[in-house]
Amino acid sequence: MAKDSSKYSAEQIQVLEGLEPVRKRPGMYIGSTDLRGLHHLIKEVVDNSIDEALAGFAKNIWVILHENDYISVADDGRGIPVEIHPKVGKSALEVIMTTLHAGGKFGEGGYKVSTGLHGVGVSAVNALSEYTRAVVRRDKKEYFQEYSKGKPKAKVAPVSPTSNFQLPTSNFVWPSKTGTMISFLADKSVFTTITPDFERLEKQIKQVAYLVAGIFFHVFDEKSGEERHFYFQSGLGTLIKHLNKNKALVHPEPILIHRMIEGVDVEVAIQYNDGFVENVESFANVVPTTEGGSHLTGFRIALTRAINDYARKSEALKEKDENLTGEDVKEGLTAVVSIKMDSERIQFESQTKEKLGNAELQPIVAQVVKDGLDMFFEENPAEGRAILEKVLLAQRARAAARAAKDAVIRKGALEGMTLPGKLADCQNRDPAEAELYIVEGDSAGGSAKQGRDRKFQAILPLRGKILNTERARLDKILEFEEIKALVIALGTGIGDIINYDKTRYHRIIIMTDADVDGEHIRTLLLTFFFRYLPEVITKGYLYIAQPPLYKIQKGKDLNYAYSDEEKEVVLKKTGEGSIISRYKGLGEMNPDQLWETTMNPENRVLKQVTVEDAAGADEVFTMLMGDEVPPRKRFIQTHAKMATLDI
User: Which residues contact 197 (CB under 8 A, 6 or more apart)?
Assistant: First the structure.
């Protein structure tokens, strides 16, 4: 597309509807109204600047966290048009900022590749902000407009020395002669928090920088003085190396495939490590498609087919051998699949854009990936053989694991294997009402069984530490009795027969001692769920119980403290002479105490386990629980001073 900035004008702006639906149903447009939703606002504004970058008009994007929770996003693009829109009779800037689904058409001067209709996101941000300001530098002039909860305070006007902006004093100097800067303060009546998290923002922007190689991103936190700058020339290749950090690699360099077919730009990076789990991320027009879609399906089909063809051609698979399956080629796979296409054609299955729906993308991506892999295997026989050895080993392990899984799970499901004897099940059979406590040790398990409400609370005691599932294949995992009991109790199945619809409890609560051993057991359980039952986490079923650390008694007055800070608060109320008992384990509590402090829904504190950053979680589990010692040693040395020692 010709880079003619003069053709980006008010005529390229479509107008569909106003902003009232956004304020009435914010979750429909940004997913949630917590910290995640707040960061989604930042993403929507950044996406608009990325649109300019993808169109070839912007090279720099700045994100600034100001004092008092104000946020600004700026670029050095052409600047949003400010002239009067011919159909509406208002400035095009005002139309974009105050009308849902107002955005650039996809003919002359508009966006061919975009994260969405230009204006959808920024208008939603405006609607959900207590204050918003847009500043446009264009045609050697500077214009602005301010808004309150989506409504303009005045008409678009030139910036002058008398312009009195609401934004707090800022050290940021916007160096560009052209472009757009959007500043906003999220509405605290809508969001549970309006304070962004710099570390989360850093990860958010870094991920985008990988996907739009050649663009400079600058992130500033004026509260702390921190700043980060990202620029990746190689894009997905750099991202793959980051995802595989701390892992032993099957082949040293990622396989990079990049080609455009029928107006669809397909970019794929693939690298195998010697682990047992898969880590695949997919994107469409720079938007993470966390639920996958047609592009990911096309990738998987092509990967399996290409490896099978190479295995037959190299005679690693003989005529009598059965083909490798999708499960075989998944083991140890790290991959990123990114497509970019005309925004007018792209179909997401929801406003939050988590799944791509375009059916025509499956054969396009499959063709690009198949051709790219065929060429790679032809030109790199050593790397090809290493990948084949990896997947053939996975195939043999799958065959060995099949017998174990059949015996443990399939036989149990079909022949009426009873629930584990150690499980004290609850009476309620409705998973939405039932909860399972996974308890460390028989002593605590006994107290929990006596103290629980048997109507809806089930107890499964675990003896000792479970297997570290980061370092084991599924067949070995299912030989471990404690994990076998847990899987049968949960009802989900595991491996290729997993079915989350059969989960017997929608609250699965890990309850361990508040000491080093308890924390280790909790980490081992979290590793198992993250690696082998990940949707238990993503569906919001997994929790961690918070037993009290202290019992504080003065006469008949009894209080519990769940932290050292809370202990001090209680002591201020009760005064001197209180008897302080430090709980070392759950078994020290009698059933009534355990119920009252840790299991009673009216009093207890539960932490829900979530995974906002799957790549970051993968990296942490690999580092803490994997085979490579040096990364773990570095982590311990770096964070040793932060540790709380229970001596």
Answer: 35, 39
Q: What is the pLDDT of residue 272?
A: 97
Range from 167-171, 211-215, 427-431 carrying the lowest mean pLDDT: 167-171
* CA atoms of 272 and 568, how far apart (whole Å): 51
Locate 548 and state its tokens: 């009290």
Report whether 570 contacts 636 (CB < 8 A).
no
Q: pLDDT at residue 331 above 70?
A: yes
Contact 438, 511 (CB under 8 A): yes
| Residue 416: pLDDT over 60 | no
pLDDT score for 104: 55
Residue 13, classed as helix, strand or coil, is: strand
Give per-residue burial for 286-323: e unless 16+ CB within 10 Å, then b: bbbbeebbbbbbbbbbbbbbbbbbbbeeeebbeeeeee
pTM: 0.71
Which of 278, 517, 566, 588 is catalytic? The answer is 517
Q: Give me the helices (H) in 406-495, please.
A: 411-415, 442-451, 474-477, 481-490
Distance CA 120, CA 55 (A): 18
Say if residue 106's pLDDT is above 50: no
Residues 45 and 414: their CA atoms lie apart, in Å, by 53
Q: Is residue 148 predicted with pLDDT exceeding 60?
A: yes
Structure confidence at residue 351 (pLDDT): 59
Whether 513 is a known active-site residue: answer yes
- Residue 515 appears among annotated catalytic residues: yes
Q: Distance between CA 116 and CA 93 in Å, rounded?
A: 17
For residue 10, give Cα distances in angstroms to 79, 114, 272: 12, 18, 49
User: How many Cα atoms within 13 Å fall on the side-chain side of residue 431?
Assistant: 16
- Residue, of 176 and 25, whose pLDDT is higher: 176
What are the chain's domains? 5-230 (3.30.565.10), 236-398 (3.30.230.10), 418-547+607-642 (3.40.50.670)
Query: Catalytic: which of 513, 596, 618, 619?
Result: 513
Active-site residue among 47, 202, 328, 440?
440
Active-site residue 34, yes or no? Answer: no
What tens digit of pLDDT does each residue of 112-126 get? 666 653 345 799 999
Q: Between 236-243 and 614-625, two packed helices, what is the crossing angle to 10 degrees?
A: 40
Q: What is the pLDDT of residue 1?
A: 40
Compute the half-sphere exposure of residue 439: CA atoms within 13 Å on the CB side of its CA. Answer: 29
Mean pLDDT, the chain, as a whole number? 87
Separation between Cα atoms, residue 44 and residue 42, nearest integer Å: 5
- Is 496 within 8 Å of 327 (Cβ atoms)? yes
Query: With 60 as the cut, is the pLDDT of residue 419 above it?
Result: yes
- Residue 161: CB atoms within 10 A of its CB come to 5
Q: Which of 515, 557, 592, 627 is catalytic?
A: 515
Residue type for position 208: V
The verdict on whether 328 is a catalytic residue reads: no
Amino acid occupying residue 359: A
Higher pLDDT, 106 or 327: 327
Least confident of 9-23, 53-67, 451-465: 9-23
Distances (CA, A) of 528 to 322, 335, 407, 625: 30, 22, 20, 11
**Burial state string for 168-190 with b = 16 or more CB within 10 A and e = fewer than 16:** eebeeebebebbbbbbbbbbeeb
